[in-house]
Design brief:
By secondary structure, this protein is mostly beta strands. It has no helices and eleven strands. Strands 2, 4, 5, 6, 9, 10 and 11 form a seven-stranded mixed beta sheet that branches. Strands 1-3-8-7 form a four-stranded antiparallel beta sheet, with no helix packed on it.
Length: about 120
Amino acid sequence: QVQLQESGPGLVKPSQTLSLTCTVSGASITTNYYNWNWIRQSPGKGLEWMGAITYSGDTYYSPSLKSRTSISRDTSKNQFTLRLTSVTPEDTAVYYCVGGASESWGQGTQVTVSL
């Protein structure tokens, strides 16, 4: 069973860079055809897909966030990382990593952008 766990700071100041890591267990992030996603949910809003990194390392981003988002991976640690630059309070959300054969979800991590 694939399990995902997000980690990172819960509070980020405006204009700084948000960095979150997803640690995957139960499957390798290089397993053929598995994709690994970041999704967020802001207060009072629906789920927003941010981007993904594929089993081969290709990346895809939401057009609305592409200029500020990057996703990378560390295959030796079976982790993938989200970086979101120039954050504003509108980036306050619960961030989830999602992936694997059954599109398993992490428990989510709250990130607040505030002074």
